[in-house]
Specification:
The chain is an alpha+beta fold. The protein contains eight helices and ten strands.
């Protein structure tokens, strides 16, 4: 119904504030506030799967992606749109197909009934939804996406969920690092996990479904460390630049 191409960000690889988010937001507003777009999603609004801050969330499958959305039935508007894909292995870090990642998210700015921290709470609800074992960061994030995930990690940790960092860039010592405190989020997510440059595509954060075993998510023999152990081993050091074939491999993680 609506084709939002998240993959195009990969080719520029200028991930964070360097993305022209104002231009991107303007284009998406034009798409999502269109009356026909609303009607298309209204026609599919039969499968209510979540409720966040009192707002019903519907689900429709579009190609290889899952679209979660919320409608305003009193006005002909789409209120919220989230495009979710299936995580591939991120260089043999994750068991392919075990997780989900949000590749695009949009909400109407004048949506009055969304409540506080709607998107982080949506991500929390999504991480606990049915067969989703783990929710992982996208391979590239805008500044908004980075801030959103910091809020989500903070909220998920406060709710007792297991949160981790994953390092699998070619120059990284491949490992998983347990996030145990709010300090671990605010001191390391920005610039150590998410930062400018293609190599950071292979660093991520992820949140497990409550009760989910990590053994069913990551490849065997990948070490699970504390932040203190990662610091002692200097694992947060800047990863080297990706070579051309490595960039091609990274791009293949996206279906479109």
């Amino acid at each position: 119904m609506v084709e939002i191409k998240a993959k195009q960000r990969l080719y520029s690889a200028e991930l964070l504030p360097e993305v022209d988010t104002q231009d991107l937001t303007s284009k998406w507003n034009e798409t999502f506030l269109d009356k026909q777009t609303y009607q298309n999603y209204k026609n599919c609004a039969t499968d209510k799967v979540l409720t966040v801050n009192g707002n019903d969330i519907y689900l429709v499958k579009e190609g290889n992606y899952y679209v979660y959305y919320s409608l305003d039935f009193t006005e002909p508007y789409l209120n919220f749109y989230s495009k979710v894909g299936i995580v591939k292995d991120r260089r043999k870090l994750f068991i392919s197909g075990a997780g989900r990642y949000q590749s695009a998210v949009w909400r109407r700015l004048d949506w009055r009934n969304r409540g506080e921290n709607f998107v982080p709470k949506f991500l929390y609800a999504l991480s606990q939804f049915n067969n989703i074992k783990v929710l992982v960061t996208d391979m590239l994030q805008t500044k908004y996406g980075m801030d959103m995930w910091i809020k989500f990690l903070s909220y998920a940790l406060s709710k007792g969920l297991d949160c981790y960092y994953g390092l699998s860039s070619p120059s990284d010592k491949k490992c998983v690092i347990k996030i145990e405190t709010q300090h671990d989020i605010f001191s390391f997510y920005n610039r150590k996990i998410v930062h400018q440059g293609p190599a950071y595509s292979y660093r991520c954060a992820f949140v497990l479904h409550k009760g989910q075993s990590l053994d069913q998510i990551i490849f065997p023999e990948i070490p699970v460390l504390t932040v203190k152990e990662a610091l002692e081993k200097n694992l947060f050091r800047r990863p080297r630049r990706l070579r051309e074939h490595e960039i091609e491999q990274r791009n293949s993680e996206y279906d479109k």
